């Protein structure tokens, strides 16, 4: 047993370093993987898509049929307020049936990819309800993370040559997800996802105090296609740290967080936070069959650079945003039935 084969309950509370080295993980047995596969395929047969309102109404119940060991492990990690990432290994992936990695997320329309999306939605339902963004990948709930020609050096997840710098997912929005779920379908060279966390005991007290004040400006990242003529309408002023000092919620995007002109104390605090998060950054290399739920309140995440080949074998993840309390996101949605924010 390596030091990382710990179950969630074995991780001592408060040990951010150990959490980084040993994320709570659950490895499905072959029988359990078969059980998960059957559930996902049945859902794909019973419902037309992951966005179907009937599926969204039922998926929480479908998740009751996931293996008991998995449900117990995810539940413990959910209740641990310091969790960085929940890893579920050994999920079924039929590489041949998937076909080639699509050249663009708009082309990710294959049936086997849809089954994978259903699987991710079912496991995500152990944590909450899926939300989407009208401004992102046409408002889909299950989105695709894959390298796209021409985007190699961009600041979005379809980049490759350029490191995807760490960020709170959708930091600009009060309706952002509590978890970001990633299902790795393919990653030949194990390109790592990156994760970092704030250890407040290692930051000067005055810096922490400033980070807790609403002195920071957040703009939507480039993955959100905002309507023309909305330059500053989308600017949000908020704190980087929120909540109790022993269980802070982190909100920061290395590329899209600024301070008001002339606010030197906020600029200094932001620089401290950036250097601190840079220093705590560690790798989580997802392999085929891994599902990772990143706690978007406790950690920031990104991705190391890689060289895409555009040969149909490139890295490919399915992604979902999960809200623990769907009602919290309601002001951002048109109606109870609409899951896309915006
Ligand atoms: O590609 C990854 O590992 C992470 C990408 C990312 O930040 C995201 O999809 O939100
Ligand atoms: Fe992200």
What characteristics describe this protein?
8-stranded mixed beta sheet, binds 2-oxoglutaric acid, 342 residues, Double-stranded beta-helix, binds fe (ii) ion, disordered N terminus, globular
Chart the SSEs and their pairings.
Blueprint: H1 16-21, E1 25-27, H2 30-46, H3 53-62, H4 68-79, E2 85-89, H5 95-98, H6 111-124, E3 129-133, E4 143-145, E5 164-167, E6 179-186, E7 192-197, H7 205-211, E8 216-218, E9 236-238, E10 241-242, E11 249-250, E12 257-259, H8 264-280, E13 282-285, E14 291-295, E15 299-303, E16 316-323, E17 340-341
Parallel strand pairs: 1-2, 3-17
Antiparallel strand pairs: 2-14, 3-16, 4-16, 5-15, 6-14, 6-16, 7-13, 7-15, 8-9, 8-12, 10-11
Helix pairs in contact: 2-6, 7-8
The structure holds 2-oxoglutaric acid and fe (ii) ion (FE2).
Report the total helices.
8
Give the CATH topology.
Double-stranded beta-helix
Order of helices and strands: HEHHHEHHEEEEEHEEEEEHEEEEE
Total strands: 17
Which architecture name does CATH use? 4-Layer Sandwich
Main structural class? alpha+beta
The CATH superfamily name is Clavaminate synthase-like
Contiguous low-pLDDT stretches (5 residues minimum) are 1-11
Bound molecules: 2-oxoglutaric acid, fe (ii) ion
Helix content: 25-40%
């Amino acid at each position: 047993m390596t030091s990382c084969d710990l179950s969630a309950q074995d991780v001592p509370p408060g040990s951010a370093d150990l959490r980084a080295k040993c994320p709570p993980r659950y490895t499905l047995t072959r029988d359990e993987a078969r059980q998960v596969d059957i559930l996902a395929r049945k859902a794909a047969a019973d419902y037309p898509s992951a966005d179907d309102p009937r599926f969204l109404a039922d998926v929480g119940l479908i998740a009751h049929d996931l293996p008991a060991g998995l449900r117990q492990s995810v539940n413990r990690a959910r209740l641990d307020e310091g969790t960085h990432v929940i890893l579920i290994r050994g999920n079924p992936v039929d590489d041949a049936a998937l076909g080639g990695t699509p050249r663009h997320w708009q082309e990710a329309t294959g049936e086997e990819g849809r089954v994978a999306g259903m699987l991710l939605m079912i496991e995500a339902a152990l944590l909450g309800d899926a939300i989407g963004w009208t401004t992102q990948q046409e408002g889909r709930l299950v989105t695709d993370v894959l390298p796209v020609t021409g985007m190699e050096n961009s600041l979005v997840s379809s980049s490759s040559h350029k490191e995807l710098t760490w960020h709170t997912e959708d930091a600009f929005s009060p309706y952002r997800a509590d978890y970001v779920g990633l299902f790795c379908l393919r990653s030949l060279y194990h390109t790592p996802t990156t994760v970092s966390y704030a250890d407040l005991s290692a930051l000067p007290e005055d810096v922490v105090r400033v980070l807790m004040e609403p002195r920071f400006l957040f703009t939507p990242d480039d993955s959100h296609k905002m309507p023309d003529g909305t330059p500053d309408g989308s600017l949000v002023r908020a704190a980087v740290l929120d909540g109790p000092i022993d269980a802070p919620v982190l909100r920061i995007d290395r590329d899209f967080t600024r301070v008001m002109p002339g606010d030197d104390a906020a600029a200094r605090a932001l620089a401290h936070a950036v250097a601190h998060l840079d220093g705590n950054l560690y790798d989580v290399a997802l392999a085929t069959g891994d599902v990772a739920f990143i706690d978007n309140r406790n950690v920031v995440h990104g991705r190391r650079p890689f060289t895409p080949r555009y040969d149909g074998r490139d890295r490919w993840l399915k992604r979902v945003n999960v809200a623990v309390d769907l009602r919290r996101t309601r002001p951002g949605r048109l109606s109870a039935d609409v899951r896309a924010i915006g």
